[in-house]
Write a structure and sequence with these properties.
With 390 residues, this protein is α/β, with parallel strands linked by helices. 45% of the residues lie in helices and 13% in strands. It is built from 15 helices and eleven strands. Strands 2, 3, 4, 5, 6, 7, 8, 9 and 10 form a nine-stranded parallel beta sheet that branches. Strand 2, helix 3 and strand 3 form a beta-alpha-beta unit. Helix 2 crosses helix 14, helix 7 runs antiparallel to helix 15 and helix 13 packs across helix 14. The longest helix has 31 residues. It is globular, with a radius of gyration of 21 Å. 50% of the residues are buried. About 3% of the residues have low confidence.
């Protein structure tokens, strides 16, 4: 009888473990990273030919957060290598998300809770990542490196302008290789120590946003409680980033922090993913003044594909936001910033980017303008931004 009870208890524990460690992460991601029905344009043969000639670059995807292989076509989410190749993507920026607050919202969040700890445990990440935000980012860098090593040259980690030049040259010769560049979504992962910025750079990170959904020790978040500007540490971090060749990203930073960053920037600044308030009046989207400020640095604004960025999930709304930036500051300062796999619903995934190309054609963009928007602008800024200052 006692043996039967023990066997029964073991079965219950084992079933619970399988559910927590095996099923729960899959179910959570499938519910967050969705492709939903939306109005899609009819793609013409001419647009397909144009799309095939483009060098496409996207400034933001959170795919490394989730437990699935980048190399296999998944039945959930929005990005993996096969879908990037199907979408003709040359370069995908992969962001490292290390902490998000419970009851996350766009208006006000404190830093006292964290959803990612439970996710890290449930996904059976190394124990070193369970308590350390720095180690979570270093783990994401390892994941991308391992995927690249197992891809037979189809996925390459981009760490320098030379890496990017080689990738584009190989693609011009007909290879379908995709570059992956590492970014940070919120510099709380340096854990208050600027020396950790150098550790992240050594691991391959070449871009960083200062804040995510809460205020931290370097900057205020537009979704934080105080929403302050750059801290003294934040100013030191920015100077260090510009010197070593890490691109500064203002996405999610408070409006005060964006103003501080733009006032002291010596190199091009980007907004990796979001929208513009002129076409979607949300607090996280950029004002016209901020758009002008980013353009003055020589930077680029990545337009996202989800409802809070464009007040829609349609390619037409993506093109509308892009057109506003073009009309305000010129076509050289706008690009793609999907936020794929960032717990958002979109109307298409990475394999369907020709829908954005078609929406731009329908909006009246020229082929030269489309080439800049779909990747040329992003590639230009990333290439120059990765070169260290001497």
């Amino acid at each position: 009888m006692k043996q039967g009870v023990l066997i029964g208890l073991f079965a219950v524990v084992a079933t619970a473990g399988i559910g927590f460690f095996g099923i729960a992460p899959v179910v959570v991601e499938a519910g967050m990273n969705r492709v939903v029905a939306t109005a899609l344009p009819r793609v013409t043969t001419q647009t397909r030919r144009l799309h095939a000639r483009l060098a496409i670059a996207d400034l933001h995807a959170d795919t490394l957060l989730w437990r699935r292989s980048l190399l296999d076509h998944a039945n959930r989410g929005q990005v993996d290598l096969p879908r990037l190749q199907a979408g003709n993507v040359a370069l995908q920026v992969f962001s490292s998300v290390t902490k998000t607050p419970r009851h996350q919202n766009y208006d006000a969040n404190d830093a006292d809770s964290d959803n990612i700890t439970l996710l890290a445990i449930a996904q059976l990440q190394p124990p070193r990542t369970w308590r350390s935000l720095l180690q979570r980012s270093l783990w994401h860098a390892e994941k991308l490196a391992r995927a690249a090593q197992g891809s037979d040259g189809q996925l390459r980690v981009i760490r320098s302008a030379a890496d990017l030049d080689t990738l584009l040259a190989d693609r011009a010769r007909g290879k379908s290789a995709v570059g992956g560049l590492l970014s940070i979504e919120g510099l709380h992962d340096i854990e208050g120590d600027i020396a950790n910025l150098d550790r992240l750079y050594a691991a391959g990170f070449r871009m960083a946003g200062f804040a995510h959904f809460f205020d931290n020790r370097v900057a205020g978040s537009m979704h934080g409680m105080a929403k302050g500007g750059l801290t003294p540490l934040g100013r030191q971090v920015m100077r260090r980033m510009e010197a070593m060749g890490m691109i500064v990203d203002v996405a999610h930073a408070s409006h005060a922090a964006v103003a501080d960053i733009l006032a002291i920037a010596r190199r091009p600044v980007i907004s990796s993913h979001g929208g513009v308030q002129a076409t979607c009046k949300m607090n996280r989207n950029l004002t016209d003044e901020e758009i002008r400020g980013i353009a003055r640095t020589g930077g680029v604004i990545g337009i996202g594909y989800w409802d809070a960025a464009i007040c829609s999930t349609s390619p037409r709304a993506v093109a509308e936001a892009i057109a506003h930036v073009r009309d305000l500051v010129g076509v050289d300062h706008v690009g793609l910033g999907s936020d794929f796999d960032g717990a958002v619903a979109t109307g298409f995934d990475a394999s369907q980017l020709l829908l954005v190309t078609q929406a731009l054609v329908d909006r009246g963009f020229s082929e030269q303008e489309i080439a800049k928007v779909m990747g040329g602008n992003v590639l230009r800024v990333l290439r120059s931004g990765m070169v260290p200052q001497r």
